[in-house]
Amino acid sequence: MTDLATAQTPPYSTLTAALLAVRDQRDRAAFGLLFDHFAPRLKAMLLRGGLRDGSADDVVQDVMLNVWHKAAQFDPARAEASAWIYRIARNRQIDLSRRKPLPLPELLVVTETRTDDATFALSLREEAALLHDALAQLPPEQQGAIRQAYVDDLPHSQISAISGLPLGTIKSRIRLALERLRHELRDLKP
């Protein structure tokens, strides 16, 4: 005859069982097992995510400390131990990235040009004519996408809504058109 308690308890992985021991009995040996297993894996994940070595170690320590303190919130019916711990790490990584200040744009050095310079005006007119000719060689659907994106200054999502085409199609048309324009205008000097 099967014991009623074991019949109702689903089998857990070793890591989930260890986290349950931390949750229910504050078992330090089980926590050590979790730490030994997850610390190097979390550090590798964080390094791949762009954190530097020192801050990755700090985040791993913080995550594992949270595992110890928040083990009471763990529910094996909702997630395995690994998913729960990786979610804590991912959330911590997102918190850190949100706290970083956004990079400031580089200052542009504007050099004064003479607008009355005939050579400059002629060069600009020739470039505009070359661009017009290159645009005319594009298929109509690519021409329309380029005009909406760069002349009308519409976001890709709005172009998609207007045309009724999927967003990926709009992005592909714009990308292909830009590649063709780049190829056609490759001889222009920046």
Plain-language structure description:
There is one protein chain. This protein has helices spanning about 5-10, 15-25, 30-50, 55-70, 80-100, 120-135, 140-150, 155-165, 165-185. The protein folds into two domains: about 10-100, Rna Polymerase Sigma Factor, Chain: A (Orthogonal Bundle), CATH 1.10.1740; about 130-185, Arc Repressor Mutant, subunit A (Orthogonal Bundle), CATH 1.10.10.10. Helix 3 (about 30-50) packs antiparallel against helix 4 (about 55-70). It is an all-alpha fold and about 190 residues long. The chain has nine helices and no strands.
Strand content: under 5%
CATH superfamily of the largest domain: RNA polymerase sigma factor, region 2, helix turn helix motif
The biggest beta sheet is recorded as: none
CATH topology of the largest domain: Rna Polymerase Sigma Factor, Chain: A
Note the overall shape.
Answer: elongated
> What would CATH call the class of the largest domain?
Mainly Alpha
First-residue to last-residue Cα separation:
84 Å
The number of distinct helices, counting runs of at least 4 residues, comes to 9
Our count of domains comes out at 2
CATH architecture of the largest domain: Orthogonal Bundle
Structural class computed from helices and strand pairing: mainly alpha
The quaternary organization reads as single chain
H/E topology pattern: HHHHHHHHH
Mean pLDDT: 84
Family: Belongs to the sigma-70 factor family. ECF subfamily.
Pfam families: Sigma70_r2 (PF04542), Sigma70_r4_2 (PF08281)
GO molecular function: DNA binding; sigma factor activity
Domain RNA polymerase sigma-70 region: 34-100
